[in-house]
Structure formats: C-alpha cells, structure tokens
Specification:
Length: about 750
C-alpha cells in the first residue's frame, strides 16, 4: 500500500553533470544503473583452510543446480565471480529474495548462504566495500587501526588477512576496530566474533580524537603507531542509491558540506597515528568531491610533503576505475554555485569552508597527483558508487615535530616506535603526536591522582574501565579484563589435564570477573595484552579475546573443571598434547548427526583410543587422506566429551551443518510446517535452559543488543553460534533432522549501513 518511490532528483543530476564526474556519452547509462537494484554479493572468508572447500561446494553443487533453471518462465542468471577479487573468493548474483523463495533448488542455495554466514565462512558484503582492505596490503605482522569500523564487514576482511597462515595461532599483528556509536560497537563485536580471532579488539571512541595508545617495549613506554589504517569515514552515501532508495528523495549538497569538516578531522587523526612508511586508505561511498578529493587535497597540502598518494593503478587488475578529479565547484542546496573561497559571502562562510575548494596553484596541484585516487562508477561493473585514496606517510606530520624538552614533561606519552623497517633507522625523528596544552595540564593532574592505582592494577593484571573524568561513558558498563596471575592455582589442573606445551602463553589468558568463580577463560595475543595493560585508563574497550575454556562442574570429578570451547579450538589445538582422538570421516558424520552416540557405533580404531582415556573433555581431529580425493580435503578439529559409554561433539548447530555439507551430506529440509511444530519444542528447551543461566556475561549483552538493533531496523534476529552458550549445546543438542529444519529460519548478518549490502536473508 506504500506509494512507489520516484527515482528522480533534479538537483542531483544538475550537480554531477556540471562537475563532469561521468565520462562523456555515459550519463544515460550512469543514471539507468543507479535506478536498477544492486546485485547481491558474497565473499568467502579466505583465512580458513575451509575456504577452498566452500568454493568447491558452491561451484560443483549449488551453482550446477542453478544451470538451466527457470522460475516463472524466466531463466535464472548464474552467479558470477568478481573478476578483480583474488582467488575467486567473491561472487555476485542478481537473484532477489523473492525469487530465492520460489524454487526448492534456489531455496536450498539460500539456506546454504544463511547457514554459512552464521558460521563466519561467508560474508555478505557490497562489492565496492571489499576494495579498501585489499588496497591496504595487509601482512600478518601489521598493527592495524580501523577508525570507523561498524558494522564490521571490512574489519572481518582485515582479520582474515592477519590469519593468512592458519598454522600460526597468534599472528604478531592485530586489529583495533573503533566506532563512535556504542550500540553499533556491539554489532561490530557480533561480526568479528564469527571469525574466532585472538587478535581483534573493539573500542568505543570518537575517531577524530581517538587517544594515543602506549605499548611496553623492552621495559620502556613507547607510543603505538599503526602500520595500516583504514579510514572509511561517515559520508552522505549518494553512491548507495541502488540499495538505500531514500537517498533519491533526501539528497542535497548540504549533507556533504556538513560532513566535510568531520571527514577531514578523522583523516588528519588517522595520519597522525600512522607509522612512517605506513599506508592509510581513505574511502567513502559518496561521489561528491567535497567529501573526497577536497579532503585528500587539504590533507596533502597541510602535510607539507609528509604524505603522498600511492599509485595503485596496477593493483586489483580487472577493476574498472576512473581517476580522481582536479577541478570542481561548490554548490549550496538552493543551487547557488561558488568557484573560489573569495566568492563566498560572509553569511555563508560557516557552511562553506576554504578546504572545500580545489587548489589554485597549478604546480602544487600537479604535485598532489589527485588523479591517483580511485572513483568507482555504478554502470561500469554493476556496483555501487565509491571513492578510495591510498596515502603513504613518508615523515612525521609537520605539526608533530616538537622539541625534545616536551618529552620530559610527559614521559608516559612519548617515545619512538619501531613499527616498520622504514622508521627504525631514524626513530629519533619519529616524535609522537602530543596533546594540546590544556590536555597536558589536565593529564598531569590526573596522572598524579591515578599513578598509584594504575600501577597496582597493572601488577594484578587488571584492566578496568577508564576512570578519567574527561571520558563520557555511554551504553553498557563493561566488565573489567583480568589477566590470570602466573601462579593462579586455576591453571595447573588445566595444564596437566590437557598436557599443554611449555610454550603455551598462559599470561595471555583473561577472565571478565574479579570476584567469585571464573566461568569462562578467554585468550588474546601477546601484542593485544600489551595494549590492554598499558592503556586501560584512556581507552574504552568493548570486547577482545576468544573463549577457549568454559567451566563445567561435572568435569571436576575427572580432574579438570574447565572444558574446551569450540570457538577457540583452532587457536588452542597446537598447544594440546593429550586427550586428542584422531577420527575417520565416517566417525565425524556420526558425531555431527547423532546427539549422544554409543561408543559401539564408532570405528574399531576410535574405540581402542577411547578405551584407555579418562572421561571428560576431548579433542576430535580429522586429517584428510590425499589418496581419497573424493573425501573432505581440509582438516577438522572439534571439541567433544567422552562419557562412560558414549562420545559426543560440542559444536554449534550451524557449524555442524557446515561440516556436513562439506562432506556431501544433504542437510536441507523444505517442509516449513514441520519446522514450525518442531521449533515449539525447541522454545521450551531454551526457556528451561535460560532459567539455569548464572546471570549475564558480556556475550549475552552483545547478543541482546544485536537482536534489539536488528528488530529496530525491521530484520529478524540473528542467532550466531558463537554467541550461543556452549553449555546449551552440551545440555541439549537436537538431532540432525531438527537442526537442519531450524537452520531454515531467516537470518540477517548485515546492518542497514551505507558501507555494506543490506540484503536480507
């Protein structure tokens, strides 16, 4: 009953035609593309060895089913890989949600996408949104800052790049993902947690004033500079008209004029925190030069040669791009044009700023190389509109070249850094960004008050919420991050029970409670531990670490009160030397399809191994056999429990379905009526389980908030296996039939945000 949205905006057309952002003769195609719906795109996460198996499964099974398929007399278009994305790991399809529901073959494909997204094996993300992380050229040792990270699809890409080598459980690099919106930070946690990495930290700050962090290097404090920074700033979003139809009606130049100042402040703060030789990618989903080239030109001008635009024309072959523009004008929302700052009347000088205009000096303009920026136009490769600029930092920013005496006043804020090889040679020049004088005075006073408390808490390994009066805290009050002391009696039985390697970094274990029984043990990398311990007073951390052990009262009688958690098993496995059972593919199928199978159902080899092992938590490992190419060709590690007469796997539902699919087991059930009747019994189980929960930990908060947010934006709540309690799986695991039926419920993983696709599942 809603009126059809008219995809017309005269001011939009007049503005961009005048600026000439579209090549001559292509305006009609450009506008026609903007009026067409955006194709859905998906990305296979590339850091797991399972990526190739998922790709094989997609191409050999699901795509083949779509060949020659007709729905309502119309031939279904085959999904196509994005030619410029490495290793065929990104695909786009014109299949709408309506069409997906009409055919059983298409619905099976749809359910595959839903379930794999929940596992973190597939990410639904707009094609152009995948470009900035690729241009960052991330290596596993890089320290990365994502300044405006929510809802998290680009952050997920960065995490995958850190884990390029799955044999390294703790890469030396890490991602600090920041967002100014407290609620959206939980959406970010929800996305990042699907990837089960110990190298991600989510923080809640205004990106334009994100604090300098410190790290401990050989006993002395040094300022943390980042090797890579992703600066995907808030923007007017007129490149997203194909999915955000409201933009047609609401578009005006006023949006860009209001955002320009914020975008420039965020980008400036980013380059201040970038290491010499480091790379920062600035991006927007806008076509407006006020938000794009004007910001970059202003940044380059005030950097006085400290920054340069990188030439990335040879990167991402196959991606059609337009060069950045060097001439533009400024227009008010009433259609009035200005070519130079001097033409702007005084009553308009608060709306229009000098930094919005192009540089007049031809030599300066030429030296900036603005044509090295990338402009992505919708009609070239059937995408959204996008802008990307890649900046390299050659030397410290001119306003940061302070005299050495400033260092003596605030020793805790100063120091060199050796983040990259480029600045290790001339570290003495790399002077960190200093706070303003007012901040200096205030921080001196605060320092005197806080010094004793802070030092004491660091000794205890506690990173509490920041006490600084300056910092306004919104949203949930976060629990502290408490690292286990070296002599904690809690760890000895765990170490003995699982025969942990002497190299196991137990100092990296943390809990979220200071008092009472520790229910969960989490783990972070050594580098993130360093960041946490040295910055708790100036940083609001929302979440970090992956769950590696959960308390299980039944386990105490078998020698260990903590059982393994599936989320952290790939990180822990290299350090475990006991309680590992190697299983064949038939055993894996039994474990994943039956709730509590008797030992007699397993192969004789498995029965022999189990015979001599005490009851309790175990690791179940499947190694592929190269001589059987038809079998699953990637290793699998599962958490399990050995009882007196049975063996079971503790694996979240969607992860079970994922492994079964990879093994060629059909897990799809199309009868929705059966699903509805069975879901009632599941609800009863969930209610009884809820009564036994001992209060909420941080994961409950995240899940509740994500569910609430998705309800607010008209999407159905998502049920992430990562956030479901492992105890629930332990107490009640449905049989496969029920699991696969329940897997058919609609799930959404993406926020309705300008930088990701809002395809609903």
């Amino acid at each position: 009953g809603y009126p059809e949205i008219v995809k017309e905006n005269e001011l939009f057309e007049r503005y961009y035609q005048e600026l000439g952002i579209v090549p001559e003769g292509e305006w009609g195609a450009f506008m026609a593309a903007l009026r067409e719906p955006l194709p859905a795109t998906l990305r296979i996460t590339g850091y797991r060895s399972h990526a190739k198996e998922i790709l094989h499964c997609l191409k050999e099974k699901y795509f083949k089913e779509l060949q020659d398929l007709e729905v309502d007399g119309q031939k279904v278009e085959m999904p196509q890989s994005l030619s410029w994305y490495p290793e065929e790991l990104a695909w786009h399809t014109n299949l709408s949600r309506k069409i997906l529901r009409k055919s059983p073959q298409l619905e099976r494909f749809h359910q595959f996408l839903v379930s794999e997204t929940e596992c973190g094996n597939i990410s639904r993300q707009e094609a152009v949104s995948m470009i900035p992380p690729l241009l960052l050229n991330v290596d596993p040792h890089h320290k990365i800052l994502d300044m405006c990270a929510a809802p998290g699809s680009k952050t997920a890409q960065l995490i995958e790049m850190l884990h390029a080598d799955m044999n390294v459980p703790f890469p030396k690099g890490f991602v600090i993902a920041n967002d100014v919106d407290n609620k959206r930070c939980y959406l970010l946690v929800h996305q990042a947690k699907r990837l089960n990495s110990p190298c991600i930290m989510v923080v809640n700050h205004d990106a334009s004033s994100i604090p300098n962090l410190q790290i401990d290097v050989d006993g002395r404090k040094e300022v943390l500079f980042y090797d890579r920074i992703l600066c995907d700033v808030p923007c007017s979003g007129d490149g997203t008209m194909r999915k955000n139809i409201d933009v047609w009606k609401k578009w005006t130049t006023q949006n860009s004029l209001q955002l320009h100042g914020l975008q420039l402040r965020i980008a400036t703060r980013g380059v201040e925190q970038l290491a010499e030789g480091g790379r920062m990618v600035y991006s927007t989903c806008s076509l407006n030069p006020i938000e794009n080239e004007a910001v970059i030109a202003s940044l380059l001008e005030k950097s006085q040669g400290a920054l340069e635009l990188a030439d990335v024309s040879s990167e991402l072959p196959g991606l059609k791009r337009m060069p950045g523009i060097t001439k533009w004008k400024v227009m008010l929302k009433d259609g009035q044009w200005f070519e130079e700052w001097k033409d702007v009347p005084s009553n308009r000088q608060t709306q229009i700023r000098p930094t919005m205009f192009p540089v007049k000096d031809e030599e300066k303009l030429k030296a900036m190389n603005l044509e090295r920026c990338l402009r992505i136009l919708p009609h070239h490769q059937n995408t959204g509109g996008f802008f990307v600029a890649v900046l390299i930092k050659k030397s410290p920013m001119p306003w940061n070249k302070r005299q050495p005496k400033v260092h003596q006043k605030l020793p805790q804020r100063t120091g060199d850094t050796e983040v990259t090889a480029a600045n290790s040679g001339n570290g003495s020049e790399c002077i960190p960004e200093e706070p303003t004088l007012a901040e200096n005075e205030e921080s001196k006073k605060m320092q005197e008050l806080q010094n004793s408390d802070t030092e004491q808490s660091k000794k205890e390994g506690v990173c509490g919420p920041p006490p600084s009066k300056k910092m306004k805290l919104f949203g949930f009050k976060e629990d502290p991050f408490v690292f286990l002391p070296e002599d904690d009696p809690l760890f000895l039985p765990i170490q003995k029970f699982y025969a942990l390697d002497p190299s196991f970094p137990k100092m990296n274990l943390l809990t979220r409670t200071q008092e009472g029984k520790k229910r969960q043990l989490y783990m972070v990398s050594k580098e993130l531990r360093n960041v946490l311990l040295n910055n708790s007073e100036k940083m609001k951390v929302i979440n970090t670490g992956i769950k590696v052990w959960s308390r299980n009262s039944d386990g105490e009688q078998f020698g260990c009160a903590f059982r393994l958690a599936q989320e952290g098993i790939y990180t822990l496995y290299p350090f475990i030397h006991a309680r590992i059972i190697n299983v064949c593919i038939e055993d894996v199928k039994i474990l994943l399809t039956q709730e509590n199978p008797f030992l007699s159902k397993f192969s004789s080899e498995t029965q022999k191994k189990v015979k001599d092992m005490a009851m309790g938590s175990i690791v179940l490992k499947y190694d592929p056999d190269p001589e059987k190419p038809d079998d699953l060709q990637c290793p699998i590690v599962l958490c399990g429990w050995q009882g007196k007469t049975s063996l079971r796997a503790f694996v979240p539902k969607n992860e079970r379905l994922h492994y079964l699919r990879m093994m060629g087991v059909e897990v799809f059930k199309a009868k929705r009526k059966e699903e509805e009747s069975e879901s009632k019994t599941e609800e009863e189980v969930q209610q009884s389980l809820a009564q036994t929960e001992e209060g909420m930990d941080v994961e409950d908060k995240e899940h509740d908030l994500v569910t609430k947010m998705e309800a607010e934006i008209g999407e159905e709540p998502s049920h992430s296996p990562v956030e479901s309690s492992a105890m629930e799986v332990e107490n009640k695991i449905e049989d496969l039939d029920q699991s696969s039926k329940n897997a058919n419920s609609p799930v959404s993983q993406e926020s309705k945000d300008t930088d990701t696709s809002n395809v609903k599942d």
